[in-house]
Design a protein that fits this description.
Elements (H helix, E strand, L loop, with lengths): L2 H10 L6 E4 L6 E2 L2 E2 L6 H7 L3 E6 L6 H10 L9 E3 H12 L4 E5 L2 H8 L4 E3 L8 E4 L7 H12 L4 E3 L5 E4 L3 E4 L1 H12 L13 H10 L6 E5 L2 H10 L3 E5 L6 H6 L6 E3 L10
Helix pairs in contact: 4-8
Length: 274
């Protein structure tokens, strides 16, 4: 089967999709500006009877931040439309150990999100923990990193919100992200995290299925990055749609190992196939 025929068959699957997961930057917006052509897109998607979530690995922020940011660009979202890797962490830990005691490396926003899930947050080595949770901690201190490593050395399992090593900032530069913290912890302790909940792992798909009741063949991921967005779709059995408004190019697809199910020039093209 050639690529064009396969793409046409995959486009036909869009009629069956009931829930779309959207990356934000590069897919819906570029910086603080909505991508031209996305105006009114979500109203039309809703009118077509589809649900949607905006998904992000960035666990340093809370839902209110993303609602304010996207509403400010004219994107109609509420807290219920925002899915953060922290949400998948909360859902997963609730299944494993409801009310667990957690030592969290994270921002105040991340800690509030986790505490709201019914968990007890510990702050000292003496208190101990059932799990160490590693998030995108832009307030990280050596003292807290030391406590985390000592707990892990004592046998406490550790988990993480997402694997991203670097976080892009304005001006084309980067700052260390959760994956960098994980590398430091693994080097210090010799142990790997028990699980990581963000893209490209399955936990956010599991959370969507639990919240909506939809099956994998009714869910699609839309994004501009092959290594996270598209890999998240392909490795977890949901339709993976690459849009060419952000990072990845057709040349990247041709020479890279991750292959999207559908390639579209712009997310607005989805509406044509519903």
């Amino acid at each position: 089967m050639n690529i064009k025929t396969e793409q046409q068959q995959n486009l036909a699957q869009l009629k069956k999709i009931k829930c779309f997961l959207f990356d934000m930057d590069g897919t819906i917006n570029l910086g603080e500006q909505v991508i031209p052509g996305m105006e009114g897109f979500f109203e039309k998607l809703t009118a077509a009877g589809r649900k949607y979530f905006l998904v992000t690995n960035n666990s340093s922020r809370d839902h209110a931040h993303y609602v304010r940011r996207m509403n400010g660009m004219g994107v109609p979202v509420t807290r219920e439309n925002i899915l953060i890797s922290t949400d998948a962490m909360v859902a997963t830990l609730r299944h494993l150990k409801p009310g667990a005691r957690l030592f969290v490396l994270g921002t105040p926003e991340l800690k509030r999100n986790i505490a709201a899930g019914g968990f007890t947050l510990t702050t000292t080595l003496e208190e101990g923990a059932d799990y160490v949770v590693v998030g995108f901690d832009q307030t990280l201190t050596y003292a807290n990193l030391t406590i985390a490593c000592r707990l892990i050395d004592r046998g406490v399992p550790y988990v993480a919100t997402h694997p991203d090593v670097r976080c892009p900032i304005e001006g084309g530069e980067y700052i260390p992200d959760t994956g960098a913290f994980l590398a430091a912890i693994e080097t210090a302790t010799g142990k790997k995290p028990q699980f990581i909940t963000g893209k490209p792992y399955q936990y956010m798909v599991d959370t969507v299925m639990e919240r909506t009741g939809f099956q994998k063949n009714e869910i699609a991921m839309v994004g501009d990055r092959l290594s996270t967005d598209i890999a998240f779709g392909t490795r977890n059995g949901i339709l993976a749609i690459l849009v060419l408004t952000g990072e990845a190019t057709l040349a990247d697809v041709e020479r890279g190992p991750v292959k999207p199910d559908i390639i579209l020039p712009h997310a607005k093209e989805i509406l044509k196939y519903l």
